[in-house]
Amino acid sequence: MPLSAPMIEERLELEELLSLMGEIKIEPFKDREIITINEKVLFEKDRYRLKSSSYPLLDELSSLIREGDYPVEIVGHTDNRPGEEKGYRSNWELSTLMAIQVLKYFVEKGEVIPERLTAYGYGSYRPIASNDTRQSRAKNRRLDIILNFRMPEYIRRIYRKRQPGIFTYKKFDFRVFE
To answer: For residue 9, is it within any domain?
Structure first.
């Protein structure tokens, strides 16, 4: 008998991954959908390097994003402890580096069109819980992925992959001839 059972690799659907991972919330709004992922799912505490265990989730999210033609925002958030305490100049730096790492993953490994993605950090300035306890601070360390799939068509057109020689101005596509 072998020492360990052979591993069977199965592609998990996004909903299954979300339920397995925990610490992930999806909120639908009128004009967008926000996927909020707790820091500990993607990163080590107070670090911006992605955990290898987060790759299957990011792969599924990449697949979901690749199928659409809407703009996507990737937003990092931290707690209110000083950035210097964590080894960074500020919480803005840490939150932005977190967002950029996910953007890079989506582009390099997930093959998402870079023009559709925006990454930025709010630092500690948009908390969802008080910063009074360790547990509430942990809720504030998160990453939001904002899917703007209900944007007006003329804005979505800007983020679509266009053929070379076409540009958009005031809702109109123009072909450039040389």
So the answer is: no
pLDDT-wise least confident of 47-56, 116-125, 155-164 = 155-164
Give how many domains the chain has, as a whole number: 1
pTM: 0.75
- Return d(Cα 141, Cα 80) in angstroms, integer: 9
Q: What domain range includes position 155?
A: 14-175
Q: What is the pLDDT of residues 4-47, one digit of tens each?
A: 333 323 344 555 555 555 578 888 888 889 999 999 999 988 88
Count CA within 13 A, CB hemisphere, residue 82.
3
> What is the rounded distance in angstroms from the CA atom of residue 42 to the CA atom of residue 89?
21
CB 72 within 8 A of CB 117: yes
For 127, the token pair is 């908390």
